[in-house]
Each structure stands twice: as C-alpha cells, then as structure tokens.
Amino acid sequence: MPAFDPVRDAVLNSPTTSSPNLARRATHLSVLLNSDPVPEKLSSSQAIRRTKSPHSSPSHSPVFSSRPSSSSSSTYPQPHLTPSAIDSPLMPPPSLPKPVETIPYNPTRRSEPGSILKPMSQAEMKMYETYRDNARPDVGVEQRQGSPIIGLKNFNNWVKSVLISRFALPALQASPYMGGNVPGRGSGKILDMGCGKGGDLNKWSKARVKELLAVDVASVSVDQARARWEGMKGHRYAASFASLDCYREPLSKAFSSHQLALPFDVVSMQFCMHYAFETEEKACRMLDNVSRWLRPGGIFIGTIPNAEQLLEHLHELPSDIDELSFGNSIYRIRFDEREHHGVYGHKYCFFLKDAIEDVPEYLVIWDNFVQLASKYDLQPIYKEEFHQVFDKNQEHQDFGPLLTRMGVVDANGESAMDEDQWEAANIYVAFAFQKQ
Biased composition, Low complexity: where in the chain (predicted)? Predict the structure, then answer.
C-alpha cells in the first residue's frame, strides 16, 4: 500500500462514489501560524488537473474531501464589488468554481501520541507568560523549511492566501481613500493585528497594498517583522510597526492620530483572535479596535479554532479518565474541565510539535462571536473550515497552482503533510466580516 499522502492523492484521484461509512471527523487543531511564507503569486496561471486511473482503488487512494460537519460552511451575502475591482487583473474571480465530486475523508490512524503531557505547574505558567511576551526566536528560513511540520505550515499559508485574495484584495482595490483602482500603484490600507514575526508581509506585497499598520503584543516579534519588511524585495509599501496588547488597550495608544486619520480597508487577525476570548472585556476591546478605524464596507478576515469540533472530542472522552486530553503525534490538546459555564474563559492547553509548548488558549463560540460582532457593526459574510477551503479551491485557476508554488505539493503532486498534520490543520475555520 502506498504511503498516505492526502494532498497528492486529492490531486491524482477523482472520486466517483460516496462511502456510506463515515468515520468521526479528523479535524482537531493547527499551528498558531506566523512563519516565513514561501514565495507565492496571486496572478492567474494553469490550473492543477487531477487524473483518474481506472485501476485505482478507494482503499488505496485516500483524498481530501468534504465530510459531515458539526459546523459546516455558512452561506453569507458576499461583499459588494465595484466593476473596476471585479475587472482588475490582480484579483481572482470572486465566484468559486463548480463543486467537485467528493467522497468522505475517512483516514485510518497509523500512529499514536508518543507522550502524554502533564498539567502545567505555576512555575511553567509563569515561564509561558515570559515566552509569550518575548515571542518564539526567529530561527531563519533554512531551519524553518526543515521543520517536521513544514507541510502543515505551507498549507495554512495557502489557506490565508486564498482568504486574502478572495476578500481582502477586492476591498483594497475598491478603497475610496488610498489610491484604489489606480493601475500600477498600491491601493488600500491594512491593519495586521497580531502580526507576529511578519509572516504575511509578502502576501500584502503581492496584493499591492499601499499602507500597512502592524501590531503585536510581543515586542521581539514586532522587531523581527520590521526587520523583515526592511529587507523585502519587490513591491514596497509604507509600513508602521508597534507593540501593543490590543485586547487590553486601544489602538490609539500605539499609533498617532495622523496614522489613524484615514480608515482601514481591511483588518486581518490570523491564528490569534481566540486569545481575546479569555474574558468578555478583552473580546470587546479587540472588536472595538477592529471596527472603530475600519471604513464602512471594509473587511475583517481571520482564522480561529473551531470550538464545536474541540467540544465534540472533549465530550467523546470516557467519563472515568483523569486527563481530558486528545491529539496525535503532531499535536495535543488538554482541557482543564469537561463542563464550563458561560461563553468566555473556557481554557485548554495546546501543544504543537516544533512550534508551541503547551500554550493556554480559549474557545470562541461562533454564535456568541457573531452576536458580539454585530454590536460593532460587523456582519459575517463567510465561514468555512480549512478542509472546505481546500475542497472548493484546489482546482481554481489561481489557487490550484498556488498549492505548488507555496510548497503544499511538489511538481509531482506529492506533499510533506501526512495524515496527522492534515488532522491538526483542519480544526481551524477561516472567516470574513464586513463593516456595515
């Protein structure tokens, strides 16, 4: 039997039947991603075509595909696009390709967790606070590319590129304030809240943004992001960087009134918004910072863990076990309590191989998030789990070839992302809101 390679097999095999035996979801939790991106483009190119062999066997050909979901993709009205934005050669078509026929994703587990994590002591919790405030060291491009979870990181970067291209790019090109629709020049203004070490700087360059304001709680990460921007090649946009806890303090404490005079066209929060849901006060401060300086019609995009999936796996755990944990060889999640009262502060600790060491995180209950966001004039227009983003965009004329350019698959359609990495990636959902 060939080695399990979900991305390769998704490209090389076109499923023709549906399996009646649906396994439990294999979607758990992904990396808090702000790593150095692999170079990518947002322009058109030839689409990836999957080949179908008459001799292939379903049991030997696992694929990425749609499957039953406790929180399936939501259909929301799409943001209004001006004709000039729609016709722009920089922007992929706003409509998705016709759905491809899929079969349920039904992997067979091939590995077990190598260790069981012990609860964090008070000393370890204190150590984490220091770690969070000073960020993970920047190890360099070569070492990052040698990471055992590089396939997972590349896949998450691809999902972010799809999200940016579909929702942020039209808003930037339609900017009424920052040179929108001017051929050959940058347009639009971005707020990257929780920018980390600047993992999305090249993506904003490809989108030809005119101005970026980037902020993060970790001052060391902010310094690394600034240095990365200073060394960028290609389209160079204006950028300002600041260290600020956006869940406790207003954005005006980090940036001047002059810097905030023109509103943002896009606010982006990638793999970090869920930390605000420790308390209602932090969540409200975060949403106020998002909405207050976002123009009407502007877009708020982000990626967060899927709380419903995490709770599903938590409730599936036997009632007599001592440790409320689950995961695989790549990641592990440990809850402090099986039942939690209220919609804020439901904590779990997250471990990810070669990336995160038992970090405290908080569930984001989607319905509560939507209700709270509406108080800040933000309405949802898009929500999909990562496996759904893949299913619907893998054969898109732009996003399909982007899988190869970003290193998700190689020229032969083979990927470094194995089953455990795929499982870790698919806990996340991508979302977009529009300012009313």
Answer: 54-79
